[in-house]
Amino acid sequence: VSPNRHSFHKIGIVYVDGVRLPIDMRYTVFPYTSNLHAVAAVMGVSGRLNGHDYARHFPLFRGTPTPASDLATLSGTVTYNGKGTLVESGSAPIHNSQNIPFRATLSADFNNKTIEGKIENALSGKQIMLLNNAPIQTLNDAITFNGTITGQGLYYKNHTGSYQGTFMGEGAKALAGEIRTVHKDDPKQTSTSAFVAEKQP
């Protein structure tokens, strides 16, 4: 799969409550090429049902999770740099949604078992949101994290939301995750993001 791959195409007809619904799909995939097989993507579908346009976005991330037992062996503060994509929703059809490529920087404190970070627009360099300090924990034999975000800038300062992710590879050499936000005053204005990042020397 090529990095930063975008695709838009009609994938056919599905039936919802007996009603024919044409479905379109667009996706953006950010594979990691460090032999850790960590991949993040935002998938979207849109169509028209009962005379109304609708669109949904779904963040996806996959890889080889770091075993939960490795958490006891990890120490110090580690920086992870990576990338991802943010899709702004609130309009349909899906090809009207805005895609924003971003840089992700996260800092994992394995001594205190916490993580935090920031998301910056890859084109303008402006900060989009902060990933607030959150606990690193184990779940289903994986090392995971789950926290809240603080929106930044003229637009995202009015957004609230959450992020979550999983450490990937031997010795937590990478991580991947997702972010979901919603406007404080307009629940129709949302964003969906997915990211991957790699441990820095």
Number of strands: 12
From the alpha-carbon coordinates, what is the Rg to the nearest angstrom?
Answer: 18 Å
The poorly predicted ranges are 1-11, 28-35, 91-95
Helix % is: under 10%
Q: H/E element string?
A: EEEEEEEEEHEEE
Structural class based on helices, strands and sheet pairing: mainly beta
Strand order of the largest sheet: 5-6-7-8-9-10-11-12
Mean pLDDT: 79
Strand content: over 45%
Most strands sheet: 8 strands, antiparallel, barrel
Number of helices: 1
End-to-end C-alpha gap:
26 Å
What coarse outline follows from CA principal-axis ratios? Answer: globular
Report what the structure shows.
The chain has one helix and twelve strands, in the order E-E-E-E-E-E-E-E-E-H-E-E-E. It has one helix spanning 153-156, and strands at 5-16, 19-31, 39-49, 52-62, 77-88, 98-109, 114-121, 127-139, 142-151, 159-168, 174-183, 190-199. The protein has an eight-stranded antiparallel β-barrel with strand order 5-6-7-8-9-10-11-12. Strands 1-2-3-4 form a four-stranded antiparallel β-sheet, with no helix packed on it. The protein starts with a strand and ends with a strand.
Topology overview:
Layout: E1 5-16, E2 19-31, E3 39-49, E4 52-62, E5 77-88, E6 98-109, E7 114-121, E8 127-139, E9 142-151, H1 153-156, E10 159-168, E11 174-183, E12 190-199
